[in-house]
């Protein structure tokens, strides 16, 4: 059965689609069979990234590793069983169409609370939560007293993950490996970085996640989206003499893939 990776939080702008594209494409480049779904039916940032990649490869007439991206199937109301939720059926059929011949299925969730996102979290073997390095985003995970630094309790997203873990336990499934990425790190504000780092380590012990390195804030990620390319594609499309920032970004991707510790994955790029 495929190992399911879910990329999610309930706040936009944390870089979920960039992380999703780079993780899925890195796995494909490492020789794994990868399926991909985008549950943000409105914005479809990950889906559009995939479409941009296909269009670029067709225009350039080149062949690069690419995940098998699928849209959620349409379900007619008369196909539903009594009391069946249409969103549950759509994601179930999408997973069923992929899981028999895939090593990994990566699911990108919307930056909001939806039924599809709830269901996806219960399916996650690995949950990746990109988090901007600020206490505004930290509030997604826990309520925090800014004066004392004390954690007052879990926030709504952490409670949803806890519920997903409970449902998986009841079904006899293995626990979710929850990985929080410190993403879009800036070069300045070292004092804030230390405070965020300490707060995340403290919280990780209380609610059970691992902290992993994400991506720094770099122009290259915005430049890659229109062509559907990733950091690992640059040399293949003729980009030579990569600058220091691009080399550092590639190392960040290598560190991220190693930190995920996905089954059967040897990071050798």
From TrEMBL:
UniProt-listed InterPro entries: DNA_Partitioning_ATPase, MipZ, P-loop_NTPase
Signal peptide range in chain numbering: none
Domain of life of the source: Bacteria
Gene3D superfamilies xref list: P-loop containing nucleotide triphosphate hydrolases (3.40.50.300)
A Pfam family: MipZ
CDD domains: ParAB_family (cd02042)
Name recorded for this polypeptide: Chromosome partitioning protein
Species per Swiss-Prot/TrEMBL record: Rhodovulum euryhalinum
């Amino acid at each position: 059965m495929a190992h399911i990776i879910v990329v999610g939080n309930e706040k936009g702008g944390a870089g979920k689609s960039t992380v999703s594209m780079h993780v899925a494409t890195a796995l494909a480049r490492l020789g794994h069979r990868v399926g991909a779904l985008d549950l943000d039916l409105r914005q479809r940032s990950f889906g559009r990234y995939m479409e941009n990649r296909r269009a670029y490869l067709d225009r350039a007439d080149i062949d690069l590793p690419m995940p098998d991206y699928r849209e959620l199937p349409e379900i007619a109301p008369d196909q539903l069983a009594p009391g069946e939720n249409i969103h549950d059926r759509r994601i179930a059929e999408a997973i069923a169409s992929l899981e028999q011949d895939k090593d990994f299925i990566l699911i990108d969730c919307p930056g909001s609370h939806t039924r599809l996102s709830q269901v996806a979290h219960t399916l996650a073997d690995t949950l990746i939560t990109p988090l901007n390095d600020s206490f505004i985003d930290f509030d997604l995970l826990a309520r925090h007293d800014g004066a004392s630094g004390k954690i007052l309790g879990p926030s709504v997203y952490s409670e949803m993950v806890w519920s997903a873990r409970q449902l998986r336990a009841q079904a006899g499934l293995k626990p979710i490996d929850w990985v929080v990425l410190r993403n879009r790190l800036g070069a300045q504000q070292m004092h804030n970085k230390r405070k965020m780092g300490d707060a995340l380590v403290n919280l990780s012990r209380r609610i059970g996640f691992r902290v992993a390195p994400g991506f720094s804030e770099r122009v290259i990620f915005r430049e890659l989206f229109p062509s559907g390319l990733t950091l690992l594609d640059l040399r293949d499309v003729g980009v030579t003499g990569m600058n220091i920032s691009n080399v550092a970004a590639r190392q960040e991707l290598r560190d991220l893939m190693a930190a995920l510790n996905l089954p059967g994955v040897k990071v050798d790029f």
